[in-house]
From TrEMBL:
Record's protein name: 2,3-dihydroxybenzoate decarboxylase/5-carboxyvanillate decarboxylase
Keyword presence, Phosphoprotein: no
Domain named Amidohydrolase-related: residues: 65-338
Keywords: Lyase
Domain of life where this protein originates: Bacteria
GO molecular function: carboxy-lyase activity; hydrolase activity
Stored Pfam families: Amidohydro_2
PANTHER family the record matches: 2-AMINO-3-CARBOXYLMUCONATE-6-SEMIALDEHYDE DECARBOXYLASE, AMIDOHYDROLASE-RELATED DOMAIN-CONTAINING PROTEIN-RELATED
Amino acid sequence: MADRLRKIAVEEAFIVPELAERLRDFSNSPSLSLDKLFFGPLYGGKLRLRERPVLEDLLDVENQRLAEMDRLGVDMQVLSVTSPGVQMLDADTACDVSEIINDRLADIVHRRPDRFAGLAAFAPHAPKRAAREIERAIGQLGLNGLIVNSHTNNEYLDDPKFYPILEAAEAHDATLYIHPRAPSDLMAGALHSYGIESAMWGYGVEVGTHVVRLMTSGVFDRFPKLRICIGHMGEAIPFWLWRINNINAKGQRAGLCPKTELSMQEYFLRNVYITTSGMEDPLALEYSIRKLGADRVLWAIDYPYEASASATKFIEEAPLDPEVKKKVAYKNAEALFHIAPAR
């Protein structure tokens, strides 16, 4: 009998009641944010993808979630606060709630270090305080990385105002996971209809745009050791990478794009990692591994928004070389998020 495949899922959402209550209030506000189309029903307790409301799955970590992990052979989940996190709160409240999230998350990880790791939350709209929270969460609480839900107040991390956050992430060797939320107002206009503002299309467009901004702006020249992780098989960037690289090179020669030290492809292959969350397509997985290398692709479920059973079956049955499969299933996660190997 073949050895059982160790599995670490790296984009797995949870929430604390203090944030859920504030986002429930926001969902009842007059805001026109596209996020409300999905998160209004979620925080109102009306969104169901399985037997119980998604909000209950997000609030529960050590009961039904853990039982499902046991049943399906998922060894660990890397937990992170669900989108849109604290980024829709005012800056002071967002900072305070981030501290609560990180304290609770650290408690969970310390109780069950064999089953859970955690990505720290922070408030991007208070960059200096966010940098201090990153130092506390990584240096004192021992969390495994960072989570940001793409734009904050329609602004992206290539803006120099956010450099204290990127500097802290690089200094603490903390991978920054850029998770989706609904597109910013800058590109929301055509995405109001047919449900395409969310995971069907808008989420990938949002995060893909964010990462391309980081590459083209020269952020990775200033922070060469900064590591970014994105989900959903790279938010389509691996499939566009040749064209992004080619057009940017032409643009730099013509003076239409900022000069950078490396090419767009070099930045992506040096600074960016991707996960399989919500993309159970064997051909996409094969392409991504061949394009980026087996060390840069990680397995994820996207719990509780995607089904754990199908995601687990996807990696177990993936037609990969056994050593490559081990890298994708758990070894890359151990390396990228500082998770101790199983004893």
